[in-house]
Amino acid sequence: MNAFPYDAVAFDLDGTLFDAEEGIASSVCRAMESLGLPVPPEADLRELVGPPLRDSLRTLLKVPQEMVEPVMTAYHDVFRAEGMRRYAVYPHLRTVLRMLKDGGVHVGLATSKPRKMAEAILRLFALEDYFDRVAGEGMEEKQLGKAELIRRALPERYERAAMVGDRRFDMAGAREAGVDGIGAGWGCGTEEELVTAGATVVVPDTEALRALLCPGAQVPRGFFLSVEGPDGSGKTTQVDLLEKSLRQYGYSVLRTREPGGCPISEDIRRIILDTANADMCPECEALLYAASRAQHVAQVIRPAVERGMLVLCDRFVDSSVAYQGGGRGLGTEVVRQLNAPAVGDMMPDATLYLSIDHAAALRRRLRASEPDRLELEADDFHERVQHAYEKQIRDNRRRFLTVNADQSVDAVAHDALKAVLSRLLPQLKDKD
Ligand code: TYD
Predict the structure, then answer these.
(1) What is the chain's alpha carbon radius of gyration, rounded to the nearest angstrom?
(2) CB 242 within 8 Å of CB 312
(3) Which residue's C-alpha comes closest to atom 14 of ligand 1?
(4) Which of 60, 132, 264, 344 lies at 20 to 30 Å from 335 by C-alpha?
(5) 226: buried, middle or exposed (CB in 10 Å: 19+, 13-18, 0-12)?
(6) Cα–Cα distances in Å, from 206 out to 3, 212, 366?
(7) Which numbered atom of ligand 1 lies nearest the CA of 323?
(8) pLDDT tens digits, residue range 140-160?
(9) Going by CA atoms, what residue is nearest to atom 4 of ligand 1?
(10) pLDDT in tens, 207-221
């Protein structure tokens, strides 16, 4: 089977690569409001993704002719400042782009957005490196039209090319440009709209797009990210926020946790955390954590990473080294060895550590809900946990990403995302 049936593919931006509805709708509302115009109804706002905005302002939203240009200017300002931050890459597309690029397929962008704005969006989401050519409209009234944009997004020579888009304009443009039109069924247009406009095929979701564009290519290995921190570091809140942000960047995230993450391991979790088991000896506790981990790695983590997912795991083996090795005094090396058969070669590619002093963490914990058995441990236990974590970090500098967790929720979330992206997307490193 040919690994890549098309040697050149052009993509539409809004509604195809990105879920753009919220970003566009909120920016149009703000722009119209700022000029004293009435805010459009929900149903009309949903129609804005895809066609050139100027046309929609005139025909759909009935903006008076003399107000069209002022609305466009205000819209561009709001969009640049905040609208595009509400965009989200559709799931799996980051992987599809990467697979096309790695396979030597020409990848282009054909958007009716101004080219500069499209480039800014690709940059914000660190997708620009996947595109060989970006074709967009200028800022002025005169438009090139979709067929011309598609021609410009494709190379001079190709064997077989396609345009992937979610609206009738994309499919009509593809026909006019003489390339296959692949309808993006996950976007804003209906299947009927796409077929009527001449789609060669309509794919229901982004997985099906991958199967169509890269049928014989292997999905690249995913990424294993663990998150660690002492009790009271705000870890669960931060994992929630991080999951949301990583999805917005287009990562296929599998969120899981330890102890737990699959039925057998969740059963073991109940035994370990049960306050009725206060007389559990440290060795038993450490072995139960390792047993639960072995099942979790075999059943959840390894298969997901092999399928190309980003596994986001709330605690992993570093917790055992810190809590059982340091806190319970079993010794960090003993605990590491005890976990070796459970972990195998599945060590995290990166570990986010939420750093907070044990005294500050204790103050936070006492304000939170009912403590479990481990949380009831004396404070020197938590001090030993913290020290064991710190030693782990010193010994594994390349793997750990340390963030100061003694800040506001938003500040920690910002720093955590930045740290994680710096590892996932090294090209973003110097940007804020
Ligand atoms: P959990 O319910 O996950 O709470 P938190 O939000 O603080 O992570 O807590 C699990 C507890 O189990 C936590 O106190 C740390 C402890 N633990 C270990 O002692 N060893 C381990 O290997 C793991 C994974 C957790």
Answers:
(1) 26
(2) yes
(3) 374
(4) 264
(5) buried
(6) 17, 10, 45
(7) 19
(8) 667 899 999 999 999 999 999
(9) 231
(10) 999 999 999 999 999
d(CA 62, CA 50): 18
| Dist CA 110 CA 148 (whole Å) | 9
- How many residues are recorded in the chain? 432
Q: Which of 339, 345, 355 is nearest to 415 (CA)?
A: 355
The number of beta carbons lying within 10 Å of the beta carbon of residue 116 is: 13
SS3 state at 213: helix
For residue 385, pLDDT over 80 is answered with: yes
Residue type, 345: D
Q: Give the C-alpha distances (Å, rounded to integers) separating 170 from 146, 197, 235, 282.
A: 6, 9, 44, 63
Tokens of 121: 């969006």
The answer to whether the CB of 339 is under 6 A from ligand 1 is: no
| pLDDT-based confidence at residue 376 (cuts at 50, 70, 90) | low
Look-up of token digits 């300002």: 77
Atom 23, ligand 1: which residue's CA is nearest?
319
The ligand 1 atom at the shortest distance from the C-alpha of residue 289 is: 22
CA dist., res. 406 & res. 107, Å (int): 43
Tokens read off for 295 = 């099942």
